[in-house]
Amino acid sequence: MADELPKTPMLDELEKGPWPSFVSEIKMAAKRSPASKDLLGILERSYQEKIGHWKHGGIVGVLGYGGGVIGRYCDVPQDFPNVAHFHTIRVNQPAGWYYKTDALRKICDIWEKRGSGMTNMHGSTGDIILLGTSTDQLEPIFEELTAIGFDLGGSGSDVRTPSCCLGKSRCEWACYDTMAACHDFTKNYQDELHRPAFPYKFKFKFSGCPNDCVASVARADMSIIGTWRDNIRIDQKAVGDYASAGVDVTKEIVNLCPAKCMDWDGKMLKIDNSTCRRCMHCINVMPKALRPGKDTGACILIGSKAPIVEGALLSSVIVPFIKMEPPYQEIRDLVERIWDLWCDEGKNRERIGEFIQRVGLGNFLEMIEVEPAAQMVAHPRENPYVFYEEYFEEGEEEAEN
Amino acid sequence: MADAPKKRTTDIGPPHYEQFLPPAIKKNYGQWKYHEILRAGVMKHVAENGDAVYTVRAGGSRLMSIDKIRMICDLADKYADGHLRFTSRHNIEFMFTDEKKIDTLIADLKKIGHPVGGTGPSITSIVHTQGWVHCHSAATDASGIVKSVMDAVIGHFENMDLPAKCRIALACCLNMCGAVHCSDIAILGIHRRPPKINHDLLHKTCEIPNVVSACPTAAIKPTTVNGKPSVTVDEERCMFCANCYTVCPSMTLNNPLNDGVSIWIGGKVSNARHEPMFSKLAIPYIENNPPRWPEVVEAVVNIIDVWKNNARKYERIGEWIERIGWPNFFKLSGIEFGKMHIDDFKHAGLTFKRSAQLTY
Ligand code: SF4
Ligand code: SF4
Q: Do domains A9-147 and A163-228+295-376 have the same CATH topology?
């Protein structure tokens, strides 16, 4: 493999400049891997022609799993035979994306032997992405990965690999143990994760506080966001320290509070917790002085997604507050009621958010046996076309007596 | 499958995270009291018992070779007892308890080409999709634009010099594997011509009822072409979403003459101050111009500069524009407003200005 790398005048331009260069990465891998060498070549051609050269994924995978491998073939195999097959493997990341180097090095060794040597750390959903191998390598890779304690992530119409923020491991704001919950749900739903049987994908994301560091409100079918019910903890002396260090408490905190529930007289910071919206701004600005309360848990929102098919959605509230304690039985029961309904009544490629748009949130709540709560809407309906399901007939009242 | 079936291990799930936690992290799990950002990319977390952990955050490229991962592992071995983590935005974090290691680690990271930063009111690494590197429906490349933009804005990664944080994301088509739709700045690949139908292949490669029902605007109808079952597209109704292409490879949307990039701004996911919001269209179309997409870079830099020069402290792009109003944004940024900015899909009416509260 000592032969030279292909000429890539356009890609070479992307080795210039201070930010880490993906082209240099591919070149490093290409010194060893014929597939990465052809990847350079085919990518250069895409840059010249302004069009991609990959075809739709075929159905490839490992025995007994319906997800975890994305089949990929190029449309010019005669010119780039080493990327004729260039399948992606999704490897389920450990919660919080923590690693020890020995584990990472073992993955690298497998990927050096059996793949292109290119990865994504990590993919959009959270998996380790091993980018580019051929069909015959899939089973051996799977066997070697499981031997070092790793398993595949989700793809297709299944539970996608759940992900979480680092939560209580390093963040003082985490209102519940996101890594424990993420790991627990992932382990519990292995069958749903590996064997697609849903109308479409279903993503869980676990964020420890309303700052929502894993973007769950925008990117998860079920967004589990930590929050608290009691009062923000205030260390008045520390507030004073921030003020003397130059923080303009009125301008930077009180005036920016969306609930207008704060008051600062230069000595004492007061918060009307009954109208505080748990937005995190004040806590973010003065982490030494303010902390979430102690009665912590999560709110659960449902249904966000990217535009495909019917338009983008943000998640919306379905459980305003719940304690987050293992084994999370109440949430599991809820999830399973939702899946049963969606599997029976959802259309092909209809995400849960779109399903709710179609049947109506009120009806959906009824079907999954959840009581409506005022926290679930931004405001009550403005539209007076109300569907009532029952009405009286004359004489009915008497008949009942 | 010539081999006799071996006993396979399946459904073990991911390894338990606990074995990977740095000792000081494991010890103080759930016991953190507060944190400080010492400088861009360097954080100090303090536990109730006074223990302190230092974190150094380096920018990564999402596309990494195993060679680079091994170099990063070498640094983790040298500085952090073999522990490291990645953030949700492709950054790499090293955690340790000895403050004195910070500067040498930063210097070593520099040697392998990785800048330190991305904390607080700054720009952090761009989350993005595969693009021409690995995707069949990409309307643009992802990594090339990301690299070019980050080269231009790296100053805002290495310095916390912005009014608030700025999250940039790129998706190379409307599928948005990167769900970019709630970003401060979203760079989105778009197709602009209706699918080219391969009538000879379609009946062999696709299920016609699926193709018909895939279209959100009902533009696709079954038909027969040269005696073969196929489909037609009512081009007036096509909004180039590529839903049909997703279910049918014989309906090609990719097209070098028409594909390009759009820019959307003002979204956020955090609840801090303003509720989460979608990004809104700023620039409908910029031609693909590889290898460095200078027009896209210039547009992103312009938006950041205008925001930086006009916003108040803590105002993210969307919050700033909500205060000053979109007409002022278009005026200040010099971006032209036109027909493409006006929504015409479902719920479009909700985006019309329905009051006389106007700026001039
Ligand atoms: S958390 Fe938000 S709403 Fe509550 S007091 Fe602080 S700034 Fe106001
Ligand atoms: S690109 Fe979208 S709108 Fe156009 S025909 Fe295909 S599915 Fe319909």
A: no
First CA to last CA distance, chain A: 93
As given in the structure block, the two tokens for residue A132 are 């580019």
B220 ligand 2 Cβ < 6 A? yes
Query: Which of A215, A212, A126 lies closest to A174 in space, CA to CA?
Result: A212
The full DSSP string for B62-103 is SEEEHHHHHHHHHHHHHHSTTEEEE-TTS-EEEEES-TTHHH
> pLDDT tens for residues B104-147?
999 999 999 999 999 999 999 999 999 999 999 999 999 999 99
Q: Which two tokens stand for residue A70?
A: 């994305």
What is the CATH code of the structural domain delimited by A233-291?
3.30.70.20
Say if CB A195 and CB A157 are below 8 A apart: no
| Number of other residues whose CB lies within 10 A of the CB of residue A16 | 14
Question: What pLDDT, on the 0 to 100 scale, is given for residue B345?
Answer: 85
Query: For chain B, which residues score pLDDT lower than 50?
Result: 1-2
Name which of B32, B62, B275 is nearest A170 (Cβ-Cβ).
B32
Residues 6+ away with beta carbon under 8 Å from B75: B94, B105, B108, B109, B112
Q: Which residues contact B161 (CB under 8 A, 6 or more apart)?
A: B121, B122, B155, B308
Domain residue limits, chain A: 9-147, 163-228+295-376, 233-291
Which ligand 1 atom is the nearest neighbour of the CA of A280? 1
| pLDDT mean values, one per 10 residues, chain A (401 residues) | 81 98 97 96 98 88 94 95 96 98 98 97 95 96 97 96 98 98 98 96 98 96 98 98 97 97 97 98 97 98 87 94 97 98 95 96 97 97 89 74 48
Interface test with B, best of A28, A50, A135, A254 (most B CBs within 10 A): A50
Q: Is the CB of B243 under 6 A from ligand 2?
A: yes
Secondary structure, 3-state, chain A? CCCCCCCCHHHHHHHCCCCCCHHHHHHHHHCCCHHHHHHHHHHHHHHHHCCCCECCCCCCCCCCCCCCEECCEECCCCCCHHHCECCEEEECCCHHHEEEHHHHHHHHHHHHHHCCCEEEECCCCCCEEEECCCHHHHHHHHHHHHHCCCCECCCCCCECCCEECCHHHCCCCCCCCHHHHHHHHHHHCHHHHHCCCCCCCECEEEECCCCCCCCHHHHCCEEEEEEECCCCEECHHHHHHHHHCCCCHHHHHHHHCCCCCEEECCCCEEECCCCCCCCCHHHHHCCCCEECCCCEEEEEEECCECCCCCCCECCEEEEEEECCCCCCHHHHHHHHHHHHHHHHHCCCCCCHHHHHHHHCHHHHHHHCCCCCCHHHCCCCCCCCCCCCCCCCCCCHHHHHC
Q: B335 — phi, psi (to 5°)?
A: -80, 135
> What class does CATH assign to A163-228+295-376?
alpha beta
Q: What is the pLDDT of residue B270?
A: 97
**Cα gap B243→B344, rounded to integer Å:** 18
Q: Is the CB of B190 inside a 6 Å radius of any atom of ligand 2?
A: no
- B131 in contact with A, Cβ within 8 Å: yes
Q: CB contact, 8 Å: A287 with chain B?
A: yes
Cα–Cα nearest to B53, from B18, B114, B105, B102: B102
Report the CATH architecture of A9-147. 2-Layer Sandwich (3.30)
Interface of A with B in 300-329 (CB under 8 A): 304-312, 314
Whole-number Å distance between alpha carbons of A385 and A23: 58
User: Cβ separation of A49 and B256 shorter than 8 Å?
Assistant: yes
User: What was the pLDDT predicted at B349?
Assistant: 87
Q: What pTM was computed for the model?
A: 0.95
